[in-house]
Amino acid sequence: MNTVHAEGRLRHRFWGEYSAVIALKFSSVEAANDALVTLKEPWHIGEKNKDVLVWTGNSDELSALKDKFTAYCNEVEKIDSCKYSVDYGEPFEVDVPVVPREQMGLFE
Q1: Residue 42: inside a domain, yes or no?
Q2: 44 has which bridge partners?
Q3: Inside any domain, residue 103
Q4: pLDDT, position 37
Q5: Can you say how many angstroms the Cα of residue 62 is from the centroid of all Cα atoms in its chain?
Q6: 16 in any annotated domain
Q7: Fewer CB in 10 Å around end: N or C, the chain?
Q8: pTM of the model
Q9: Is the pLDDT at 105 greater than 90, yes or no?
Q10: Which residues in 7-33 are b (16+ Cβ under 10 Å) and which e?
Q11: What is the pLDDT of residues 37-72, one digit of tens each?
């Protein structure tokens, strides 16, 4: 199985009702687009950087995302860690499985 690698970081948003934003930075726009096929909504391409995927969710959605990311990330506990900052989780890395472009037509 092919994968694309990204470096990620979560930002805690404690004002009002809790939410979090995660940004995953890939090596290229193509890698981000490939990962988006796997990750699906609510992930989306970043507005400023097209090689970044962005996710926003509440605490329950974050918990579900971490459960899903155990398949992609060996450091899932770092995602929402407050070890170094109450605003940001620790940097983490993910390897998202992707379908090779030459096989994409098989799934349509």
Answers
A1: yes
A2: 54
A3: no
A4: 93
A5: 11
A6: yes
A7: C
A8: 0.89
A9: no
A10: ebbbebeeeeeebbebbbbbeeeebbb
A11: 999 999 999 999 999 999 999 999 999 999 999 999
Domain membership flag for residue 104: no
Q: How far is it, in rounded angstroms, from Cα 48 to Cα 39?
A: 20
**Has residue 16 got a pLDDT over 90?**
no
DSSP-assigned letters across all residues of 11-75:
EEE-SSS-EEEEEEEESSHHHHHHHHHHH-TT-EE-SS-TTEEEEEE-HHHHHHHHHHHTTT-TT
- Which residues are within 8 A (CB) of 56 and not within 5 positions of it... i.e. 6 or more apart? 19, 20, 21, 22, 42
Measured distance CA(32)–CA(66) in Å, rounded: 19
Number of structural domains the chain divides into: 1
Using a 10 angstrom Cβ sphere, with 0-12 exposed, 13-18 middle and 19 or more buried, the burial of residue 60 is exposed
Taking the C-alpha atoms of residue 108 and residue 100, their distance in angstroms, rounded to an integer, is 14
Q: Which residue has the higher pLDDT, 93 or 103?
A: 93
How close are the terminal C-alpha atoms of the chain, in Å?
19
The yes-or-no verdict on residue 14 having pLDDT over 90 is no
